[in-house]
Structure formats: C-alpha cells, structure tokens
C-alpha cells in the first residue's frame, strides 16, 4: 500500500530535506514522486545536465527507506527552451499563442519538444536506472490538462499526415460530409485544424481533430516510454491520468501502454455528493486497469486552489476519500504534494505537511491515515468484483459536445454520472468498459449515453443480448456512426432493431421542465416521439407535467403566438408545453426480448428517484441485489477467496449498523457491529472452510 505524494525538494533549502525525511518516516510515507517540474534545474542550458542535487535527494530518500516514483521532468519546458524554440509554443483555436510563465507550454506535435523530452528522459534513465530508491518511472504529468489540442501550423501539418494515413481525399470528403456548406477539399494542403470559424465548425472534422490530438499526446508519452524500456528495462512506467475529471484524452487508447494505471482526483468542494463523483472517477480508473488494482497518484488532504471557493475537507473527510479510492481498487493513496509551497501558483493548495507545520489537524490526520494504510497491507492486490458494467467512450463525449445538437442539456458526462450515481445509491458496484470490451461476465450492461456507435460495436451488443444479457440503453445513444453521420431510418439507428423501437423526432424539454410518465416516473431534458416495433411499452409519456420544476400551478399554455419564451424561459407559474398532448401515449420506457436476453430503452432523462426505481427493477430481474445500505459498501477479494468489505459512512451525524460478519482491520473489532458517523470499517471475511 503506497502512501506519500509529490515531493518537490527543489522548492526548499537543502537543510529542509533532512526534516522532510524525518517527517515522512513519522507519517509512514513509503513512496514520493520526484522531479515532475524539475526540467529547469536538471537541464539549465540546452544539453547540459545537473544531477548533483537529485543524486542527493534520491540517496537521502533511499537511506530512509522511502521509494521514488521518478518523473522524467518533461511536463513543463523551461523558459530557455521556449525562447530557443518559439515554434514549440502552443496556439489556441483563435490563433493566440500560449506563452511560457505557467506550465505545460508546449505543442504536442512539436518535433523540438519531443526531441528535448526524449533526450532528458534518456539522461535520467541512464543515470538512475539502478538507483535503489527507484520504484517506477513517471512520464510527463496530467497529459492534456491544459493544452489538450494545439491549432498551430506545426500541428496542422501533423494533422494532415494523420489524416493521410486514414483517408484518401475522396474518403476524407465523404467521412466529413464536406458537401455541406461548400467544404469539399481538393488537396490535403487545404485541410486545417478546426480553428475558430464564423459559424459551427464541421463536427466530423472536429471529432477527428480530437482523436488526432489525443493520439499526439500519446505519441509524446510513447516516445519517452520507448527510451525508458530500452535503458531501464523491468522498471514499471506510469503517467498520471485524470479519469473522470478531464475528458480530452481517450484513456482507452492509452491504458494498454502503462504498467501501472494511475490517476489524479480532486473533489468539487461545493458538491454535497462529491464522494459519489469520487467513486465515479475511481470506477472509471479501475476500468482502465482492466479490473486490476491501480494507484491513486494525486488527491488532496484539504482544499485545492483552482475552484472559485476552495473549501477544505472537513475532519475525517480525507480519510474517507483515501480509503474510498482503496476500496475501489487503488493500492495506496498519494497526494499533491508533500510540503505546502511558500511561493508559486499553488501555494494555497493543501499538502501533507501544511503551512502550519506538524502542530496541525491536517498533519495529525495524515499520520493516522499512514497507520490505517499499514493496517490494510493484506488488501494489496485484491480485486473489486461487479455484476454491472457501464459502457462508454470518449469519442461520444467529444462528438456530443460539439455545437449544433438538439439540446445543450443532454451531455454524455451528465448521463454517465447520473446513472452511476443511481447505482451507487442502490449499493451496486459498477465497472466501466469500452464499447469493444468483454461483456460476457456481466448479467447487466448499461449504455447511459453512447452517441457514436459503429457497426462492429453494434454487432457486439446484439450478440450480448442474443446470448442472454440484459442491456439498458439511455436516450441519444447509437444515433451516429464513427464519422458522426446519422444512422437513418428512425432513431436510434444503430440500436433500433435490438431495442424494438423506431423513433422519429427528438423533442427536448425547456430548461428545468419535467414530464410525467404513465408509471409515475419523472423525466426531463429529453423526449422522443416514435413507436415500438417489437418492444413492450413499460411506461409512456403523459400530457401531465411540463411544469417548471418545483412549480405547483398549471399556468397558462404556451401557444402558437408564444414566441416570447426563448430557451430556458417559462411564463409565470410554469405552463403546458404545446408538445404535451402530441406525445401523450408515446413510448418512453420500453423492453424488448431479443434472443435469450432483453434490451431496455429509456428515451428521456429520468430524475434520480425514478432512475433508481427502474434500475432496481431491472437488477432484480437479472438477479442482482440492490441493498441501498446507507453505507458505501465495496468488496475486494483475493483469488483464495479472502474478501475485504469496505464500509464507509459518509453521514457524519449518524452511526449505521452493519449485519456482515468479520473483523475490522482498522480497529480489530468484530462485526456485526456499527460503522460510526463519518467512519470506516474494512471487514476481513475469510472463505468458508471446506
Ligand atoms: Zn501545435
């Protein structure tokens, strides 16, 4: 169980380093990430390396038994580099250069950046490959966090090369639908990144540019990986993802190239259900690891510094956050950063060792967490089990977030988070899978929002249901192919036959408006007008509802003359939607028997309670329990059957009883028992003898 965080000794005089290692030992720190932003000190002039200070840091850490996740230091080129290679600076869609003076000021396609990064990675690998403190290599940092896409001329040329590898000119024109708005290309040289345009840019071009940009950053990572594999074989390599937080990188493409899947997660301080968002990110990360253990590379002991109001974690919240990540598969808990900075942009970001020093609540909680993680040593390597999986991909996020869709309120991210939250509240652990994943071990598969769906993935879903699986599909899934071109003949084109429905029109709701379904459920955001072909109607639209959420009165009808209500506005007291009576009786939730399985369709966004009710019903039908326990319950198991039940009580006012048997590794108390308000138990459950 790793415990520690980013260690930036270069920010401090050398005598502080000696205090650092004493305190690290006191807290039980066993892994620190060194050198993430050290390029300027390691290479103060082009090609001249100064490793003396890093030698002393690594030797000191090793002498104190602290392992090192050693960065290749390429996340942020120093000012001399940008001055010498001005064409390496990134450019935004509007043509503005992003200058040095913060971090990550490089164009991912820049040959000079890539050459310099590889040179530095090689120098570090040659010097430290046999250092006893070295545990793993850490390439870059949060790739794409600030510059996910560069629109400069260098990137434009690289984009054209990427396109040439995939298309000839007629195929490019076909894939991008360039007959629309007179965009036909007669030479690759005419093709540009989707720079700022007078009107909506070509969405298929934008989708390909997002794919290209993720691949360009991956190429930066792979170039360094190749050097590390060559010079330092056998040492694991990672780079810290930002799963569930940043959506610009296709991590399904990246994950096979890291030895350790690691991620960073930061809470949204204003969100009362931030712990569910944490679970969402952790579950996605476990998906990237193929269900294997992974590593929480960064989170925070308290406040961050980049939200409008940076509220610290309450006492006990850091412990719950850390152990919630461990519950969902992380073999440790690391933080940004070891010692709070005195200077720089992140000086108000919390740390393991705060500005106040060791006489502080934060430090005492850090030491307690270190002790907790030592008590959980035997959990290391255990895997999380789940019977339900959510299928998603990044290209659907990218395609659906382009302008020009039926409703701005309908986003992949919201759908994914909403469905995951419903299952969290039902007490059901969920895995995340790519559309090309292996569904065979899951009795229940959810597609909350998979807007882009190609023929191969469509066929795999069909095969899954045919073979007895239960599939639940959310609205606006399977609508377009890989080129963002609509499957025609009735929505959702790719899934129409599997779902046994044929929808003709999308009919979004006004902002804040709701619709009542015949089974009493409440929908919002989205409706569809259509009919079933082979499916059974579970619930249909009624002409009730359509009120402003929270409004009790009927209000007046928005009639044909009501052009005075732009999107989001409603007349005083709410009012009926003119579409209400035309949709009444149309199918909203359907179920289609297909082969030995069943495929459900939900053509609106159900509110939380309604979605929970529906998913509980479907889970029951597939034999999956939905205990809704009032605790966060997650199990990790070893192959020998030893199981650890993590029980986290997020209510800091109420104790919760738990009927499970076993021994709590954190307190050595036996269960059945009580998980105290705001507390955690990790209950060891041995397999039955014989
Ligand atoms: Zn560029």
Tag the structure with descriptive keywords.
690 residues; alpha/beta; ten-stranded mixed beta sheet; nine-stranded parallel beta sheet; 18 helices; 27 strands; 30% helix; 20% strand; globular; binds zinc ion
Compose a concise summary of this entry.
With 690 residues, the protein is α/β, with parallel strands linked by helices. It is built from 18 helices and 27 strands.
Tell me the layout of helices and strands.
Elements: E1 2-7, H1 14-27, E2 31-34, H2 39-42, H3 52-63, E3 67-71, H4 79-84, H5 111-128, E4 134-138, H6 153-164, H7 169-176, H8 203-231, E5 237-238, E6 240-241, H9 251-254, E7 262-264, H10 274-288, E8 294-298, H11 317-327, E9 330-335, H12 361-375, E10 383-384, E11 388-391, H13 394-400, H14 412-426, E12 430-433, E13 444-447, H15 455-466, E14 470-474, H16 496-499, E15 501-506, E16 513-517, E17 522-524, E18 528-532, E19 536-548, H17 580-583, E20 587-594, E21 597-602, E22 605-606, H18 608-621, E23 632-637, E24 643-648, E25 656-664, E26 670-675, E27 680-685
Parallel strand pairs: 1-2, 1-9, 2-3, 3-4, 4-5, 6-7, 7-8, 8-9, 11-12, 11-13, 13-14, 14-21
Antiparallel strand pairs: 10-23, 15-18, 16-17, 16-19, 17-22, 19-20, 20-21, 23-24, 24-27, 25-26, 25-27
Helix pairs in contact: 5-8, 10-14, 11-12, 14-18
Bound molecules: zinc ion.
Zinc ion (ZN) binds next to helix 6.
């Amino acid at each position: 169980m790793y415990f520690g965080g980013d260690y930036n000794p270069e920010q401090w005089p050398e005598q502080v380093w000696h205090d650092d290692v004493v305190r690290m030992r006191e807290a039980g720190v066993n892994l620190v990430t060194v050198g993430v932003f050290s390029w300027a000190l390691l290479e103060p002039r082009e090609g001249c390396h100064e490793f003396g200070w890093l030698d002393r840091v690594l030797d000191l850490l090793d002498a104190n038994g602290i392992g090192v996740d050693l960065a290749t230091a390429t996340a942020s080129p120093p000012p001399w580099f940008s001055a010498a290679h001005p064409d390496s600076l990134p450019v935004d869609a509007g043509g503005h250069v992003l200058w040095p003076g913060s971090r990550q000021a490089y164009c991912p396609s820049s040959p000079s950046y890539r050459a310099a990064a590889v040179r530095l990675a090689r120098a570090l690998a040659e010097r430290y490959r046999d250092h006893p403190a070295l545990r793993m290599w850490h390439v870059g940092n949060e790739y794409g966090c600030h510059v996910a896409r560069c629109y400069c001329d260098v990137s434009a040329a690289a984009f054209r090369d990427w396109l040439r590898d995939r298309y000839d000119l007629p195929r490019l024109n076909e894939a991008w639908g360039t007959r629309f708005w007179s965009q036909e290309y007669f030479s690759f040289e005419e093709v540009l990144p989707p720079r700022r345009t007078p009107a909506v840019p070509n969405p298929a071009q934008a989708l390909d540019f997002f794919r290209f940009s993720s691949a360009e950053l991956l190429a930066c990572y792979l170039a360094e990986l190749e050097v590390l594999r060559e010079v330092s074989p056998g040492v694991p390599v990672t780079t810290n993802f930002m799963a569930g937080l940043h959506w610009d990188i296709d991590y399904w493409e990246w994950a096979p190239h890291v030895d350790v899947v690691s991620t960073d997660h930061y809470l949204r301080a204003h969100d009362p259900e931030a712990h569910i968002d944490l679970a969402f990110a952790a579950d996605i990360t476990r998906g990237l690891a193929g269900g294997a253990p992974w590593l929480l590379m960064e989170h925070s002991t308290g406040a961050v510094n980049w939200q409008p109001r940076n509220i610290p974690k309450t006492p006990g919240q850091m412990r719950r956050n850390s152990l919630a990540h461990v519950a969902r598969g992380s073999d440790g808990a690391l933080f940004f950063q070891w010692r709070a900075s005195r200077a720089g942009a992140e000086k108000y970001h919390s740390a393991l060792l705060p500005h106040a020093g060791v006489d502080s609540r934060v430090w005492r909680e850090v030491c307690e967490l270190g002790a907790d993680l030592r008590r959980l040593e035997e959990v290391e390597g255990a895997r999380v089990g789940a019977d339900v999986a959510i299928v998603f991909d990044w290209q659907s996020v990218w395609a659906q977030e382009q302008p020009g869709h039926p409703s701005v309120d309908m986003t992949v991210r919201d759908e994914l988070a909403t469905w995951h939250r419903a299952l969290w509240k039902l007490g059901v652990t969920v895995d995340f899978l790519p559309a090309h994943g292996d569904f065979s071990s899951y009795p229940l598969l959810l597609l909350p929002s998979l807007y882009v769906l190609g023929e191969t993935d469509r066929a795999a879903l069909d095969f899954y249901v045919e073979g007895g699986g239960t599939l639940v599909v959310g609205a606006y899934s399977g609508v377009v192919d890989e080129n963002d071109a609509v499957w025609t003949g009735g929505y959702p084109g790719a899934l129409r036959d599997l779902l046994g429905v044929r929808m003709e029109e999308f009919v979004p709701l006004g902002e804040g408006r709701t619709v009542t379904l015949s089974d009493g459920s409440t929908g919002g955001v989205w409706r569809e007008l259509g009919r079933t072909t082979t499916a059974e109607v579970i619930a249909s639209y009624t002409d009730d509802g359509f009120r402003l959420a929270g409004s009790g009165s009927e209000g007046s009808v928005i009639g044909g003359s009501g052009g005075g209500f732009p999107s989001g506005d409603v007349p005083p007291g709410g009012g009926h939607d003119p579409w209400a009576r035309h949709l009444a009786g149309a199918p909203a939730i359907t179920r289609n028997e297909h082969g030995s399985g069943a495929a459900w369709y939900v053509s609106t966004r159900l509110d939380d309670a309604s979605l929970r009710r529906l998913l509980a019903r479907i889970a029951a039908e597939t034999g999956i329990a939905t205990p809704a326990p009032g605790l966060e319950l997650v199990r990790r198991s070893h192959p020998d059957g030893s199981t650890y039940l993590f029980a986290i009580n997020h209510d800091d006012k109420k104790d919760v009883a738990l009927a499970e048997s076993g021994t709590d590794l954190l307190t050595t108390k036996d269960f059945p028992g009580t998980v105290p308000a705001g507390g955690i138990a990790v209950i060891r459950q041995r397999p039955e003898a014989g």
